[in-house]
Amino acid sequence: MEVCNCIEPQWPADELLMKYQYISDFFIAIAYFSIPLELIYFVKKSAVFPYRWVLVQFGAFIVLCGATHLINLWTFTTHSRTVALVMTTAKVLTAVVSCATALMLVHIIPDLLSVKTRELFLKNKAAELDREMGLIRTQEETGRHVRMLTHEIRSTLDRHTILKTTLVELGRTLALEECALWMPTRTGLELQLSYTLRHQHPVEYTVPIQLPVINQVFGTSRAVKISPNSPVARLRPVSGKYMLGEVVAVRVPLLHLSNFQINDWPELSTKRYALMVLMLPSDSARQWHVHELELVEVVADQVAVALSHAAILEESMRARDLLMEQNVALDLARREAETAIRARNDFLAVMNHEMRTPMHAIIALSSLLQETELTPEQRLMVETILKSSNLLATLMNDVLDLSRLEDGSLQLELGTFNLHTLFREVLNLIKPIAVVKKLPITLNLAPDLPEFVVGDEKRLMQIILNIVGNAVKFSKQGSISVTALVTKSDTRAADFFVVPTGSHFYLRVKVKDSGAGINPQDIPKLFTKFAQTQSLATRSSGGSGLGLAISKRFVNLMEGNIWIESDGLGKGCTAIFDVKLGISERSNESKQSGIPKVPAIPRHSNFTGLKVLVMDENGVSRMVTKGLLVHLGCEVTTVSSNEECLRVVSHEHKVVFMDVCMPGVENYQIALCIHEKFTKQRHQRPLLVALSGNTDKSTKEKCMSFGLDGVLLKPVSLDNMRDVLSDLLERRVLYEGM
Amino acid sequence: MVLFVCFEQLSPIFLYNSVSWSTLAMNTTVVAQLQRQFQDYIVSLYQQGFLDSQFSELRKLQDEGSPDFVSEVVSLFFDDCSKLINTMSRSLEQPDNVDFKQLDSGVHQLKGSSSSVGARRVKNVCISFKECCDVQNREGCLRCLQQVDYEYKMLKTKLQDLFNLEQQILQAGGTIPQVDIN
């Protein structure tokens, strides 16, 4: 203090300097004071500042420094000891705080610096993420494009549209200059330019398929960058551009229907590919990005799938069209067949009738002619006519029968008959011919063969006759044996099991002859229609060749089987057939057939003495009816009016015939009157029969309501009257069975 | 051996007849000739539709008991015919008041008689006559009446000839052949 305070300013010029010092100090102090304030203010404002304590320290340091400088202001002039003290304190404090701060800063500054580093790091990261997001967005857009492309491609099943759409969409999505599709030709040796995006090529442009660049592309499923100068890429006229855009080519597999497996993508064994070439715009310096290539590959695959779908659809449509055509054709054929069948049936129905009638006439009249007196030549002629017509009739019957058999319209007429008698009859029929040919026929009937059986007698006879007839026909010498037995099990045909059921049994008939025999190879042909074995011997015997076919059909209808065994030519043959027959319950009911018939009534054939009354207004009718009844032996009384009838009728008359032809009810009244008359008496009233012009339902009902016992249709024939009378007398009523 | 063949009725024209000779008493060729004539004649009558099966039924009724049955019936029929025709023509005379009821009953009678005898043509005319009666067609009735008249007279002559033939045969000592028309 002694030093400083007592120093008197040397020069008055130093006063200026002192003034400047004074002012600077002042300003420094202010600055020093305001800096912490600013700091505090801004720190308060900012949310995050980790070093508050440092700030306080720093603030203190600055405040103290400011204080020091402020106090300095008073030291320019003489100042008291207090000021000096304060000054000193301030200085000391400032020193302490500054040192502390200095020490603290040593720790803090590295931290602060590291913050900076982190900040830089984060910024880099952010930039990176931005980049990546850009990429993702691009990819997503690509994906969208692909989806859209796929949708476009797959929205149509038309091949051309698919390909065209592909090119157009790809061109749009990738902003291509040119896009082309090369398809393999039919021969498979060349690629033909089929579709382009922009340029229309009038000439079909082909390149051979074996180019190295093409092989390279076909060898991988990825999109391959190729040189713009390769033949497949040289599509547009070189127009002096600087730089041709990059070209990428990708293969498009052309799949066939047969390539598709259910679960895995087909192994491309067909190796038929089309080539898709994409060109970036020239002069654009654009590069093919990876994602673009991926897009291209995906599209190529989709196109392949779409094309195969289109192909499948085409094929299925074609198949369906074909089926429809076939259906139509079949339908037509069926209708034609039906028409033909109907026509044939009609024809048969007509011919059946038309042919048989003249035939019958011819046969009948020729046989009659035979009976008359003829010269020998005439007799010969007539016999020939008869023989020929019989043959013709048989032929016709055979043909007609066969047609009906084939139709399935033939039905067996079942009836009960005597089997033993049948066989004997057949033999009797055949015997004459056999005797002439000197062929003894033997018949063996098994002892357990039932006598009375149920079956179609006529057809069975036809079968046996046919077979035995054949045997006789084709044998020149030797003998014929016919055996009939009941068979229990069948040993021949494996698929034909014979099981005799309760009331049925299987009849087996074996006809063995010692004739020409049959070649085993010909046996199957025997049963076919119209076929005959071509040996001369058989040729001469005529016949239509239908016999066996018909017999076979009948046998089949009877649920049986027929076959022929032969040991060879010249060794004879055996014809065997089985048929199913029913066993008749009682042998004494052989008279009864399967169709229930009215039991036979013992008929009155003689009506002698039967008293009958005839009432008819018409004299002629009266006389005729009387004559009829008289012829039958009745005693007839005639009356011509109702009143007379009432008067005359008595209990002696058994039947009253009354004519009811006149319209009106008066005639019927008489019946009621007669009823009345006889209810009073004790005698039985006569049977009342009406003679009428018609016997329809209404007439019958009328008669019944008036108490008549029957109605007859005029004019009555003799036989009719006879039947009627016997029925009447038996049953006392005539209405049923009319 | 004689073959008897039955046919369905093919047509009104009986083309196929079968003939059976119950007794062949061929004493003289005259009788045979007469018989053949008779046969042909009667067959022709059938074929031309003058007679039908009822007539043959009538002929069946002729036997020893009633040898003239047929001729009796037939003559009765013709008498009846003429009487009825007279009555009917009288009814149809006045165009104003024609008693169709009476006419109807007359036709009915005629129809009945003709069908009993087997006079086919007469019967057919009667049927159309009845139709005209039903609609009260006088002109039609007149026409039918004329036709009936004509038919019955025609039939009368024919049957007369037939009976004459019969008589001739009987006189010559032969028997009358049976002709069955089914």
Automatic annotation (TrEMBL), chain A:
Organism's domain of life? Eukaryota
Q: Which residues cross the membrane?
A: 20-41, 53-72, 92-113
Q: Where in the cell is it found?
A: Endoplasmic reticulum membrane
Response regulatory domain span: 611-729
In terms of InterPro entries, this protein maps to:
ETR, ETR1_N, GAF, HATPase_dom, His_kinase_dom, HisK_dim/P_dom, Sig_transdc_resp-reg_receiver
Checking Pfam families in the record gives: ETR1_N, GAF, HATPase_c, HisKA, Response_reg
Alphabetically list the UniProt keywords. ATP-binding, Copper, Disulfide bond, Endoplasmic reticulum, Ethylene signaling pathway, Kinase, Membrane, Metal-binding, Nucleotide-binding, Phosphoprotein, Receptor, Transferase, Transmembrane, Transmembrane helix, Two-component regulatory system
The text of the family note is:
Belongs to the ethylene receptor family.
Q: What is this protein called?
A: Ethylene receptor
Give the classification, highest ranks.
Eukaryota, Viridiplantae, Streptophyta, Embryophyta, Tracheophyta
From TrEMBL, chain B:
Keywords from the UniProt entry? Acetylation, Cytokinin signaling pathway, Cytoplasm, Kinase, Nucleus, Phosphoprotein, Transferase, Two-component regulatory system
GO terms (BP aspect): cytokinin-activated signaling pathway; phosphorelay signal transduction system
In this UniProt entry, the residues modified to Phosphohistidine are 108
Q: Which Pfam families does this chain map to?
A: Hpt
Cross-referenced InterPro entries: AHP1-5/YPD1, Sig_transdc_His_kin_Hpt_dom
Q: What is known of its domains?
A: Histidine-containing phosphotransfer domain (HPt) contains an active histidine that mediates the phosphotransfer.
| Name by which UniProt lists this protein | Histidine-containing phosphotransfer protein
Native source organism of the sequence: Arabidopsis suecica (Swedish thale-cress)
